[in-house]
Design goal:
Elements (H helix, E strand, L loop, with lengths): L3 H8 L2 H10 L11 E3 L17 E3 L22 E3 L17 E3 L17 E3 L17 E3 L17 E3 L17 E3 L17 E3 L132 E2 L18 E2 L13 E4 L3 E4 L9 H9 L2 E6 L5 H14 L6 E9 L2 E7 L6 H60 L44
Parallel strand pairs: 1-2, 3-4, 4-5, 5-6, 6-7, 7-8, 8-9, 10-11
Antiparallel strand pairs: 12-13, 14-16, 15-16
Helix pairs in contact: 4-5
């Protein structure tokens, strides 16, 4: 309950109250649970006061100071607040629903679980404030600074943000469905796992923001800047990104099924390991983008700009690449079986170890020159340019080979097995090893000549399957042999150790003889019999000799 003395001083007017506060700086006013109706408290000093659960009903608080004030569960519903300082205050559970807030300072304030439903907030600052789990449904933020504020878990449905700043804000798990953002700075903000369904983002700056796991169903991004944003684990099938700028965006490893990227700017974006199957990317700009190991199988991408892009090890099987701009593109080890490069521009592209077949089309392909090795090495032609049609003729001839690429060396036993099996299964294919080349980094290229009408994709797949099967089987044999070898080595080591023990024993005997020179026996014992064994000693007693002795041969003994 409020301190009646403090409450009485406040009711005498702001001038009396502020003078009392000045004289009693060390005193904390207690206005808890008070109800203040129809008062003019303009410019009153409530700093550091305890006004929990206070009710300001129809009170004029223009210019009032609430710095570092305890306002937990205070009631400002439908109140007009102008030019007020709530900075660093504790406003948890405070209600501002349908309030009109103008030029308010909420910097560093704690607004967890606060209510702003339907409030109109203008020219206000929430820098570094905490609004976790607050309710802001239908609120309007106009010219508001929310720099580095924390909105995690907040209800922002139907909210309106105009000409506002949310840079570096924490918007994780926020519900922004049906909200409207116009001319808003959300750069470097964290919106991971937020719900942005049906939201509208006109001319919004998302530069460097984290949109991983976000629900973008039916959201629109007209004129939005999505440069360098993270877009992981997103369902793009219902997203409208028309008019958005996605330069340097990070979509590596994403499943893009059903996405409509036509007409978008992905210049410098990261799509490495992305799956583009069933995606519309016609008339899209991938200039200098990273598309390594991306899967484009079976899609149309007419008039796409891949100039300077990296498509190393990408899969382009049966893709319509008509009129593509592949100028200066890296196509190292790209797979383009049945791909249509008609009228595409391949000038300056690097085609090191690319995999094409007789179904790959080069009708009217534009190409002044190409590189056979990365880093612009082995230019073809060496000088000058191809005449029109020369590139196509050269590559139609080169299509009579199948390239087998091994990245970790070759098991030649497995190679021989698979190649022989391939010959049996493809009689008439005229298989012949044409060349074996070392490409560096342990990569070996084996080029196999085949008949012009052979199914090169089938031959390639059959060989690699047979090779992998044989390599695994041989590896198992190798391991078994190694185990047998290890057992044999262990046995031999045991025998060697026994020999060493015998040698050591002999050394001990020789040492004993050397130390006792009188203990030398020089007796001819050929054909002799002893009972109880031999005795080698300086003095021998008769008792030491026992048993029946019978020496039948005495020819070697003197009479």
């Amino acid at each position: 309950m409020a301190n009646e003395e403090h409450l009485a001083i406040l009711r005498r007017g702001v001038e009396v109250w502020n003078k009392w506060r000045t004289k009693n700086r060390n005193l904390i006013p207690d206005l808890r649970d008070a109800t203040l109706n129809n008062l003019n408290l303009s410019r009153a000093d409530f700093s550091q006061a305890d006004i929990r659960n206070i009710n300001f009903r129809e009170v004029n608080l223009t210019g009032a100071v609430f710095k570092q004030t305890n306002l937990i569960s205070a009631n400002f519903i439908r109140v007009v607040l102008t030019d007020i300082d709530f900075s660093e205050g504790d406003l948890r559970y405070t209600a501002f629903s349908q309030a009109n807030l103008y030029k308010i300072n909420f910097n560093n304030a704690n607004l967890c679980y606060a209510l702003f439903n339907g409030a109109v907030i203008r020219n206000t600052s929430f820098k570094q404030s905490i609004l976790r789990k607050s309710e802001v449904n239908g609120a309007k933020f106009i010219d508001v600074n929310l720099l580095e504020s924390n909105f995690s878990g907040t209800d922002l449905r139907n909210a309106v943000f105009r000409n506002s700043i949310l840079r570096k804000a924490n918007l994780t798990e926020v519900d922004i469905s049906n909200a409207k953002f116009n001319e808003v700075d959300i750069s470097q903000a964290n919106l991971s796992d937020a719900n942005l369904s049906n939201a509208i983002f006109n001319n919004v700056d998302f530069n460097g923001a984290n949109l991983s796991g976000v629900d973008l169903s039916n959201a629109t991004f007209m004129g939005a800047n999505l440069t360098r944003v993270k877009l992981f684990h997103i369902d793009f099938s219902k997203v409208n990104l028309k008019g958005a700028n996605l330069q340097e965006a990070n979509l590596s490893g994403q499943q893009l099924k059903g996405a409509k990227f036509n007409g978008l700017n992905f210049s410098g974006a990261n799509f490495s390991n992305a799956n583009f199957r069933e995606t519309d990317i016609c008339d899209t700009n991938f200039n200098n983008a990273d598309l390594r190991r991306a899967d484009f199988r079976g899609i149309k991408m007419n008039d796409v700009n891949f100039k300077g892009a990296r498509l190393d090890m990408a899969i382009l099987d049966e893709v319509n690449c008509t009129r593509l701009n592949l100028n200066n593109t890296s196509l190292i080890r790209v797979q383009a079986l049945g791909t249509d490069f008609s009228e595409a521009n391949l000038t300056g592209a690097c085609i090191e170890d690319w995999n094409i077949n007789n179904a790959t089309k080069f009708n009217n392909t534009i190409c002044d020159y190409i590189y056979l090795r990365q880093n612009q090495r082995e230019r073809r032609p060496n000088i000058g340019n191809f005449v029109f049609g020369e590139f196509t003729k050269l590559f139609q001839k080169s299509l009579e080979t199948v390239d087998l690429i091994f990245r970790n060396g070759i098991d030649w036993d497995a190679f021989a097995y698979s190649f022989k099996k391939l010959e049996v299964e493809n009689q008439g294919a005229q298989l012949d090893v044409q060349s074996i080349e070392k490409k560096g980094d342990g990569v070996i290229l084996v080029r196999v000549a085949v008949a012009p009408d052979a199914d090169k994709a089938k031959i390639h797949n059959q060989f690699m399957q047979g090779y992998e099967f044989a390599a695994k089987a041989l590896e198992a044999q190798y391991q078994s042999r190694l185990q047998e070898k290890d057992a044999l080595i262990a046995k031999q080591e045991s025998q060697i150790n026994r020999l060493f023990d015998i040698v050591e024993q002999q050394g001990s005997v020789q040492k004993a003889l050397a130390e006792n020179p009188r203990k030398v026996s020089n007796t001819n014992i050929i054909n002799s019999q002893f009972a109880g064994g031999m005795v080698d000693a300086i003095n021998v007693d008769a008792q030491q000799i026992g048993g029946n002795i019978q020496n039948n041969n005495t020819e070697d003994f003197p009479n």
